[in-house]
Design a protein that fits this description.
Layout (H helix, E strand, L loop, with lengths): L2 E8 L27 H5 L2 E7 H4 L14 E5 L12 E3 L2 H11 L4 E4 L3 H9 L5 E7 L18 E9 L5 E8 L14 H6 L3
Parallel strand pairs: 1-5, 1-6, 2-3, 2-5, 3-4
Antiparallel strand pairs: 6-8, 7-8
């Protein structure tokens, strides 16, 4: 199981539009659940993990956004109308325990903004950060940092061009700063989790 965050950002570094919408929604090529490589991303996922702010709007959507995924929500209360199969908890470490206990080998899509991603990264639970960089300039909005700690260690894995001019960039995540001299040559996410140096 790997916990993988995927988010879009403008070419000038904003993860939301100036009005607060996810960056992806500003792209004319955006089709919910279809475009920008989301189908490929979700193929190996069995669960979605998110905060209450991301989850609550789904309760009034015409289409349930996670039809084939187990859903885990971090929040201080269970929102009214939450389907019975959705697991909620106010403690991120406890929610991770529930998620791991239920996992059957598939990956987890960590959905949400930089603060939610940082919450789970700080617990050592974030394995991949996948960014879709859009060919758009916003000039304002929410940035990826400082909510996501600038000392987050990112190791480049791959990139690919997407239709419409966007680029997908995938990084492995560590708790150390990128380029840290303390990083050993044989460092990998697996060795970090197992405690090897």
């Amino acid at each position: 199981m790997q916990i993988r965050a995927r988010m879009s950002m403008s070419a000038d570094g904003y993860v939301t539009t100036p009005s607060g919408w996810p960056a992806l929604t500003a792209d004319p090529a955006f089709v919910s659940g279809e475009s920008h490589g989301i189908r490929d991303f979700l193929e190996g996922c069995e669960a979605a993990l998110m905060g209450r702010t991301t989850f609550e709007p789904a309760l009034t959507n015409e289409r349930w956004p996670w039809p084939n995924l187990n859903v885990f929500v971090l929040g201080s209360r269970r929102p009214s109308g939450t389907p019975d199969h959705v697991v909620t908890d106010s403690d991120p470490a406890r929610l991770l325990e529930k998620l791991r206990a239920a996992n059957q080998g598939g990956d987890v899509h960590l959905v949400g903004g930089p603060r939610t991603i940082e919450t789970f990264r700080a617990l050592g639970a974030l394995d991949k950060l996948e960014l879709v960089v859009l060919p758009l300039l916003f000039g304002a909005g929410m940035r990826l940092t400082p909510s996501l700690d600038p000392d987050t260690g990112l190791t480049f894995e791959r990139e690919r061009a997407l239709p419409g001019g966007s680029v997908e960039i995938v990084y492995a995540v560590s708790g150390r700063a990128s380029g840290s001299p303390a990083r050993d040559n044989d460092w990998s996410p697996a060795s970090q989790r197992s405690g090897r140096k």
